[in-house]
Amino acid sequence: MVTVMDRTSATPRRGFTLIELLVVLSIVALLASIAAPRYIASLEQARETSLRASLAALRDAIDQHAADRGRYPESLAELVESRYLRALPTDPYTQRTDTWVGLAPAPESLIAGAMADVRSGAAGRSRDGSLYADW
Fold first, then answer.
1. For 4-14, how does the pLDDT look when each residue is reduced to its tens digit (9 = 90+)?
2. Can you list the alpha helix ranges (DSSP code H) found in 70-134?
3. What do you get for the CA distance between the two ends of the chain, in Å?
4. Separation of alpha carbons 68 and 109, rounded Å
């Protein structure tokens, strides 16, 4: 810190020099450049974990419906109406509840119904290289 004497008063003025401010700003920028990639990676990991949990909950509800009623549900809305789910989860990548893709049961399946499995409608790949739509 540099002390500068003011010509009009007897008290010195205190302030920072331009060099001191630049040093502090460069330190802050360096710390931010180290922290930002880690923050972004943790956000991506949280989205993937949330997607996996939502898919597990939906698949569990579909299986419970099939076990209780002897048939697969016709839609995800039927799971909510039948109270197997309180509400449809939001896809963490599309930020919507209507992008879930229902998969029909295999032709050799003995259980009737329209939706035996569910996938995400999100485009893109996960950190391990697999498609979100394949989970």
1. 555 666 667 78
2. 76-81
3. 58
4. 17
